[in-house]
Amino acid sequence: MSAQRGLVLLARGGYAARGVVYLIIGLFAVLAAQGSSQPTDSHSSLEALLSQPFGNVLVGLVVVGLLAFAAWRVLQATRDVDHHGREFKGLVIRGGLLVGGFTYGALALFALGLLV
Length: 116
What we know:
The protein has four helices and no strands. By secondary structure, it is an all-alpha fold.
């Protein structure tokens, strides 16, 4: 597999996992708006997902995807794959991508901690 193909798969898997996490949070937010006491943030949403049938498998998949997304964000920031450049604006954007990568990495580690 070429490096380019690997990066594409990494990015796609990461974006898919991020989308799943946001869908879960959104679902629980809708339930909370209807009067149910469901979680409305990412940490409590992952904890609630863990209690579902096959929750360990689902959270495990989310962990893998979030780690992939975190790695992709770090690569975007450090390798400038989106060609933001080295001017001030580009460095600010790349800094934001790096912070995002660390944030998603932390969320993945939190989810991994739920499994252990």
